[in-house]
Design a protein that fits this description.
Uridine Diphospho-n-acetylenolpyruvylglucosamine Reductase, domain 3; alpha+beta; about 450 residues; Vanillyl-alcohol Oxidase, Chain A, domain 3; globular; nine-stranded antiparallel β-sheet; five-stranded antiparallel β-sheet
């Protein structure tokens, strides 16, 4: 059904009254600003955009969509929006206004609205001597990150963020508001923690914080021509470090843009990033083999948890890009050679970043009371990003394909939050888990009102 019909416009006027006027339709002021995602090549043109302030307004939107034959696509920052397509038959539900955050320091727990981002929680928690299982980008939505699993800087020691969530407020397709916990709605609670946005619109969640006052963290920058030496040394080093260390080996090519700091602007590096959640003396000892390689820049130092928010140097502003990703098993040295050949200094690659994240540890062990994503397979996660600048689109696609092909023999699976192309959501899970998730969706969204980026049990 088109949103431009007279009946639908009359209905939208009624909906606008229920949600305080924050309803945008094509051709009206505010529509274009609200429909833009983080990847600016994704051209979202939803039937309407609703910006609710609380769960009751979400419920009204759900009931309206069902009555009008539309779907509902929740979104905060627009990361990983590409799989959802243009949304012409959907209401884009922007959770921006639901951004309230409260922290209970004695209980070591936070409650956040669906519009909250990690930068709304991490600094405040850090001042209290606490840390969250946040990811590498401070402006990512906490809700979206957690629903997809949540793999961050403390992951090898403390696992996935989804499994530290303790309560979820969610509006299901029938317009009912649920408080899902292990006691009140256990199957919905299980499905939401790792199953993505297939089961309703999350409006708030509560999660544990960690008693971490200080970490030892930083980046070692090496000349790009030393990529093979550095990545081999880092790869061998990962086999010896404890779970208290989460690290990344990375090929990084900074674009020549004014917002990039002058010392690295337009330059290329092989880098190692790491966070140690142990004492400084032990951390310095563990890091020493990599420091002995003689980095050009060494930023490692003790810092509060807030200090690592931008350690990964992800861009803050929307940009045009494409990606590739795979979870990888144990890698032989030949795999590092293949990666360097595909994206290193002699490859001609124009990719901004190709990284290997060291996983394993707690990520590979099923947490007690875990949600749908209980663990991740493999020992490393590969993620590559290329900027889709005018005239470079074909080359970027070729560079990404070359990296994917180089590491395909070592694939162990995929992580939902890192796959930015349309994929059957069931493919991220073992068959028994996928079947259970499909059954949960049949219960909570039988008519498939929800439009997730990776749909489970799509019809």
């Amino acid at each position: 059904m088109s949103i431009d019909t007279t009946r639908t416009r009359r209905s939208l006027a009624a909906l606008r009254a229920q949600v305080g006027g924050d309803v945008h339709i094509p051709g009206e002021p505010g529509y274009d600003a609200e429909r833009t995602g983080f990847n600016i090549t994704v051209d979202q043109r939803p039937a309407a955009i609703v910006v609710p302030r609380h769960a009751k307004e979400v419920a009204a939107t759900m009931r309206f969509a069902a009555a009008e034959g539309l779907r509902v696509a929740p979104q905060r920052t627009g990361h990983n929006a590409a799989p959802m397509g243009p949304l012409e038959d959907s209401i884009l539900l922007k959770t921006t206004a639901m951004d309230r955050v409260s922290i209970d320091a004695p209980a070591r727990r936070a409650r956040v609205g669906a519009g909250a981002r990690w930068e709304d929680v991490v600094p405040a928690a850090s001042e209290l001597g606490l840390a969250a299982l946040h990811g590498s980008t401070p402006d990512v939505s906490i809700a979206g990150y957690s629903l997809g699993g949540g793999m961050g800087w403390y992951a090898r020691k403390h696992g996935l963020a989804a499994n530290r969530v303790r309560a979820i407020e969610v509006v299901t397709a029938d317009g009912e508001i649920h408080s899902a916990t292990p006691d009140t709605d256990p199957e919905l609670f299980w499905a939401l923690r790792g199953g993505g946005g297939n089961f309703g619109v999350v409006t708030a969640l509560e999660f544990d914080l960690l008693p971490i006052e200080s970490v030892f963290a930083g980046v070692l920058f090496f000349p790009f021509e030393r990529a093979s030496e550095v990545l081999h040394a880092w790869h061998e080093w990962t086999a010896r470090v404890p779970d208290e260390v989460t690290s990344v080996g990375r090929l990084l090519q900074f674009p020549p843009l004014p917002e990039v700091p002058e010392p690295v602007r337009g330059k290329s590096f092989a880098v190692v990033e790491a966070v140690f959640i142990c004492g400084q003396e032990e951390a310095e000892m563990l890091l020493e083999p990599l420091r002995q390689l003689g980095p050009a820049i060494d930023t490692f130092m003790p810092m509060p948890p807030a200090g690592i928010a931008e350690l990964h140097m992800d861009p803050r502003d929307p940009m045009p890009y494409d990606t590739t990703h795979a979870l990888l098993g144990e890698l032989p040295g030949e795999a590092i050679d293949a990666l360097v050949e595909a994206a290193g200094p002699e490859s001609g690659s124009a990719l901004v970043s190709v990284e290997l994240r060291h996983t394993g540890g707690a990520l590979g062990r099923e947490a007690e009371g875990a949600g749908a994503v209980a663990s991740l397979p493999g020992e490393f996660a590969m993620f590559g990003v290329g900027a889709l600048m005018p005239g470079l689109e074909t080359k970027t696609e070729e560079d990404l394909s070359r990296v994917a092909a180089a590491l395909r023999p070592y694939e162990a699976g995929h992580y939902l939050n890192f796959v930015e192309s349309r994929t059957d959501g069931a493919s991220f899970f073992p068959p028994a888990v996928a079947g259970r998730l499909e059954a949960a969706r049949d219960t909570y969204d039988p008519d498939r009102l929800m439009q997730a980026n990776h749909e489970i049990g799509a019809r």
